[in-house]
Amino acid sequence: MNTKLNTEAFLNDFSISCSCVQKKYFTKNQVITTYIQKRNQICILLSGEADLVRYDLNGGRSIIEHFVPNSIFGECFYNVTVNNELSVEAKRNCEVLIFSYDNIFKKCKESCKFHNTLSENLLKMLTNKVIDLNTRIEVVTQRTTREKILGYLSILSTKNNSKNVTIPFSLTDFADFLSVDRSAMMREIKNLKDEGIISKEGNKFTFLQ
Amino acid sequence: MNTKLNTEAFLNDFSISCSCVQKKYFTKNQVITTYIQKRNQICILLSGEADLVRYDLNGGRSIIEHFVPNSIFGECFYNVTVNNELSVEAKRNCEVLIFSYDNIFKKCKESCKFHNTLSENLLKMLTNKVIDLNTRIEVVTQRTTREKILGYLSILSTKNNSKNVTIPFSLTDFADFLSVDRSAMMREIKNLKDEGIISKEGNKFTFLQ
DNA sequence: ATATTTCAGTTGCAAATACAACGAACTAGC
DNA sequence: GCTAGTTCGTTGTATTTGCAACTGAAATAT
């Protein structure tokens, strides 16, 4: 898997030839979309970085997913419930393609190149999303804060084939991503440093030995 | 979403006309597949019930996913690492279709009906899987054992549109699914009962008002 | 029919984690 | 360069959770 997506060509075709898609721009901290009501919306992040964030009723905050270019998201992948509020927040300036799930199967009159390759590309994007979500579950199902931290860092380390990993979060957001209290996470990072397992400078971590 | 899949017809076509797929049968407690080595395998559960289970190095056990008919799984959706062992275990007798990810795009000579509808069906199956995984993340990212229990039960309750929910697990497995200690879970269930929030009989829970 | 294993339900205790709070360091805007 | 708002790093304390252990009930195997 991890098939390289030829999204640039694919998506340019889309925006040129197909009327059922919108390309939108968002600035840092803007809300790209919310998962409050069902509308079968699909979004594809073309550039930038964004997080799917949940605010609990008691003010707690969790980062559910972290999106990078080629990530696919939208409330159509979610069971929308009233229990909590989900929104996708731009972490930097973002370009986003937005269309409806129904458009996937409705081929447009001109039978544009986009629609011809859409299914295959979507399949690959969705497969990658499933892999990402499974990786996410791998981390948050770890029982202890220590295992969550090490689990996430070692996945990054394997991915980049390097003992050095830079988390794409502030430490505050990292705690929200791991679903743990920030001070508890900091304490555990301190323990890992004291035990000589990792070192840390800002949000760059290094596995020692 | 939640489009009803016409999988019976779809999958019968597959098994009749296409040589690139295998249909296999498993009895209760048999291992259907493992996620130890990369081989781009896709499985579709036709009947029965199965769990994706992780055994940690220190003997801990987590139920990562719970599969029902039409669930799609396989190591092709997973970043296989050496850190832990993942396997899919049949909870009852199971019928499973097994084929390779690569076969999706290689149309067979006869251009069987299966290959004609495969992409669309896979898209729907994958979309459903993404929804399932997001639901899973919704539960395990809850911060406390109480919120995990209530979160899972209320999702089931909403889904079935009933105050009564029956979990598809033993209580021991339920704890592994929520990624919490069994005794801690039992204690919290007791608290919820004492506080009059839920009642419980076996693995059937009821929300009280 | 009986033995063996698994599961449910508890509990005491130790360990991990959340909560609250604070000052220092850093960032962004004016 | 100053100010306001975040983020980082830390700590004391209360609460939650995990661990270990055990009993009786239920399920499964012999």
Can you offer a commentary on this structure?
- 2 copies of one chain form a homodimer.
- With 209 residues, chain A is of the alpha+beta class.
- Chain A has 2 domains: 7-132, Jelly Rolls (Sandwich); 142-207, Orthogonal Bundle (Arc Repressor Mutant, subunit A).
- Helices cover 36% and strands 26% of the residues of chain A.
- Chain A contains 5 helices and 11 strands, in the order H-E-E-E-E-E-E-E-E-H-H-E-H-H-E-E.
- Chain A has helices at residues 7-17, 113-140, 145-160, 171-178, 182-194; strands at 22-26, 31-34, 41-47, 50-55, 61-67, 72-73, 85-90, 94-100, 164-166, 198-201, 204-207.
- In chain A, strands 1-8-3-6 form a 4-stranded antiparallel β-sheet. Chain A has a 4-stranded antiparallel β-sheet with strand order 2-7-4-5. In chain A, strands 9-11-10 form a 3-stranded antiparallel β-sheet.
- The radius of gyration of chain A is 19 Å and the shape is elongated.
- In chain A, 36% of the residues are buried.
- At the A-B interface, strand 5, helix 2 and helix 3 of A face strand 5, helix 2 and helix 3 of B.
- Chain A binds a DNA duplex (30 and 30 nucleotides) through residues 143-146, 170-172, 180-184, 186-188, 190.
